[in-house]
Every structure is written in C-alpha cells, then in structure tokens.
Amino acid sequence: MQSQPATIVPILLPRAFLQPPVSEPSEESLAAASGSSFSGQPAAFIRDQLESLGPRLLRTVGSVTAEVNSASLPKELAVIVNDLTPTNYPTHMLAVYAPVPKNASRASIPQTEVKLYPVHALLMASHCARLGPFSPSPTTDQIPTPASNPSTITLPVRPMCLPSPETFPVLLNYLYLRRQEVLFDAFLPTEPSSEFVDNCNSTEHVISLAKDFGTKFNASTLLKHVKVIQGIWSNACALGVFDEGLWAAIDSCYEVLLNVLAIGTSTSSSQA
C-alpha cells in the first residue's frame, strides 16, 4: 500500500510578544494589601523590600495545605501552614481558572477547573498594576511566632480568571524569587549557556544558543516552549506585570526559539 505524503500545516508566529504601556499599581491597591504598615510607600520601593524576603515567603506558601469540601468555591478557606518558622503568613488564596471559550454553547462548556494558590497580597499588589485591591485578611498584620506544630489560619478566597492558568505557577514563582533562571527553565528545552544567563539581551548569545539548540531539538519541542512563553506573556499582560527581568526573558527566549525554527525551516527548504 502506497504511503500518503505527510501533510504540512503552516504555523504563524508573531515576530515578538509586545509589552503593553508600563503602569504602576494604584495607591489604593498597595494600601489594601499593606494593612496598617502602609504610609505611602511607592510600588517600586515595596518590590525592592520584598525581593530579599521572596525565597522565605515562597517557602511558607509552599508549605500550605488545604481542602475544599464543597462543590462551589467558598469565600474563605481554613488552611494549614506546615512551615514552623514563617516570617509572614500568606494573606489570601487565589482561585485561578480559565475564561469560557467564546461562542461556546452552554452544553459544550466543560466544567471549570480551579487551582488554588496561597499568596501574600502585598507581593501580588506591588507587581500587578491591573489587579484590583485585595479584600481585608486577618493575617495581613499578624506576626507569626515559631511553633512546634503546624498552624491553622483562615484566608479569603479571591477568584482570578487568567488566559493561561497552566503557566501561572511559573509566573508566581518568578515574582517571589525574581530570578530569571525560573523563566529560562520553563521557556527553553534545556539549560542555556552561562553567557546567555548572564546577559540574555545580547544578540550574540541569542544567536549562539539558537545554533546550539538547532542541532538538538525538533520543531514540536520548540513549539511547546513557545506556547509556554505565550502563556506567561498573556498572564503578565492581564495582570499588568512590568518587571524588567521578566520581559527580558520573554523577549530573548522567544528570539532564541524563533531563530532555531528559522534555521530548521531554511535547512528543510534547501534540502527539498
């Protein structure tokens, strides 16, 4: 039986993922997230102060366990903090879900999948200019003390519709850690060169990495990582995240992948 020729499906990719006009979080949002400690500090100052605390805060939210026993999303949730030496309790639980597909009939709409993420409101508010104020939380001004057993706290639940819920954990980890390696691990199919990590904005390093990847990865693998970059980009636009390190990683890693795909396309055409 004669085999059928492979079907070639063209894929159109944008030349770049553009950054929206930069804006800063409102004073109202910062005040709501700060509690009694707010005295007019600008968002940039708060971000700088949180950067050194980020890894410690991430360890605490990573220790949180919770159970939802109802079919509907509760307004607040009792959670267990297993970190015995937290510096700051999380203040809210984000309930992240995807938007309903446009033009979908009611019968065809799948059940909404919701993922829960404990967060510190001040960290989210200081980074996300398009995120409205958080509701009051009993843990905002609470100072934890070292304990011999896990603590139980109650967190307000905040629903959050995002275009790419599946990539939100990567963005959230980056906001806590402010380390581009978090993004490189998600955006690229393998660890990049140390030169690229040190200066991902360098055209020379971008081209060098693209040539290296071109000998190792096929188009399918590369396109999976393009989808991750697109997801992080869409979430950053929706939330209003304008962190320079984030956007540098988006631009440079996408440029690497585009160059690899271009090299592969050029090679295939020349061999045809």
UniProtKB/TrEMBL annotation:
Lineage summary: Eukaryota, Fungi, Dikarya, Basidiomycota, Agaricomycotina
Organism: Gymnopus androsaceus JB14
Protein name per its UniProtKB record: BTB domain-containing protein
